[in-house]
Amino acid sequence: MQLGHTGLWSIELRTADPGRITDAAAELDELGWGALWIPGLGGGDILGDSERLLRATRTTKVAIGVLSIWRHQAEEMAGGHARLQSEYGRRLLLGLGVSDPAAAEGAGRPYRPLADIGAYLDTLDDAPVPVPRSERVMAALAPRMTELAGRRTAGVHPFMVTPEYSAAARERLGAGPLLAPYQAVVLESDPSKARAAARGFLGGFLTMDHYAKNLLRQGFTEDDLTGGGSDRLIDAVVARGDVEAIGKRVQAHHDAGADHVCLHIVGADSGVPMAQWRELAALVN
Question: Scanning 69, 112, 152, 266, which has the fewest C-beta atoms within 10 Å of its C-beta?
Answer without folding.
Answer: 112
